[in-house]
Amino acid sequence: MSDTNTILPPLPAHWDERTITHALERYRHQPTVLSHYVEGLRGRFLDGQEIKTLQRRTEFLTAKIAALQVGKEYVLIIRELERQRTIEDTKDVTAQTALEEARREQQGRAHLHTLEVKLRASELELQIAENERKKQDLLTPPVPPVAAPPKDAKAEKRAYWEEELTRLRQDKERMLADTPDEEQRVRVENMYEDKIHEALEQMRKYL
Q1: Is the dihedral angle over the CA atoms 124, 125, 130, 134 positive or is it negative?
Q2: What is the pLDDT at residue 125?
Q3: Please, which pLDDT band fits residue 91 given cuts at 50, 70 and 90?
Q4: Where does a domain end: 62, 95, 128?
Q5: Which of 7-21, 87-101, 126-140 is the least confident region?
Q6: DSSP 8-state symbol, 4
Q7: DSSP E strands: which ranges in the chain?
Q8: Are both 83 and 157 inside the same structural domain?
C-alpha cells in the first residue's frame, strides 16, 4: 500500500510522549506519512509555545526521529523542526525585548511621576511655610524702637562743675607759679579761692 493511500492516525488531543512515540515507530517505514504526522504535531504542539516548552518538545521529537534512522526523510524533518525552533526563538527574543523595553519605559514613567510628586510636595511645603510666615507677621504687633534712656541732667551739671573745679585749681597753681610778687600772689590766691568756693557751692546743688 502506498503512503498516499494510508490513513493518518489522529493527532493526540494533548502532548503525550508515549502515544507520539508509538505513532512514530508505526510510520517509520512510511516517510511521507511520517513527515505529515510530524508536521501535524508541529502545528498543534510547537507553534506558539513558550521557548522552554518548544525546546523540550523539539528535542524529544528530534531524538525519536533520529532513532528511527529513516534516511533522507530524517534530515528533512530535522531541518524543519530546527527551523521551527529558530523561528520561535526569534519570536521569543523579540517578545522578551519588547517586554523589557515596555518595562523600562513604565519604570521610567513611574520614576518621573515620583519625582514630579516630590517636586510638587516641596513646592507646597515652601508655599505653606511662606504663608505661615506672613500670617505670623500680620498677627505679631510691630516692636517699637527702643528709646534712648533720658539724659540725667543732674549728673551732667555735676560733671560740669567737677571739671570746672579741676580747671580752676590748675589755673590757680599756674598763676601762683608765674607771680613772684607776694602781694600779687595773695590777690591771685584769694580770687581763685572765691571762684573755687562758688564752684563747690554750685556742684553741691547736684549731689
Answers
A1: positive
A2: 82
A3: low
A4: 95
A5: 87-101
A6: G
A7: none
A8: no
Q: Exposed/middle/buried for 71, CB within 10 Å: 0-12, 13-18, 19+?
A: exposed
Residue 126 placed within a domain: no
Secondary-structure breakdown of the chain: helix, strand, coil percentages, each rounded to the nearest 5: 80, 0, 20
**Cell 500680620, located at residue:** 138
Q: Per the domain annotation, does 122 fall within a domain?
A: no
> Whole-prediction pTM value?
0.37
Asked if residue 157 and residue 90 are part of one domain, the reply reads no
Q: What phi and psi values does residue 177 have, to the nearest 5 degrees?
A: -70, -30
d(CA 17, CA 68): 15
CA dist., res. 203 & res. 164, Å (int): 9
Quote the mean pLDDT of the chain: 81
CB atoms within 10 A of CB 27: 22
pLDDT at 9: 67
**Containing structural domain, residue 182:** 153-204
180 vs 139, residue with greater confidence: 180
Total domains in the fold of the chain: 2
Q: Tens of pLDDT along 98-134?
A: 878 888 888 878 887 888 887 778 787 878 888 887 7
Last residue of a domain, one of 95, 130, 165: 95
Contacts of 44 (CB under 8 A, 6+ apart): 11
Nine-digit cell at 174? Answer: 599756674
Residue 177 C-alpha cell reads as: 607759679
CB atoms within 10 A of CB 189: 14
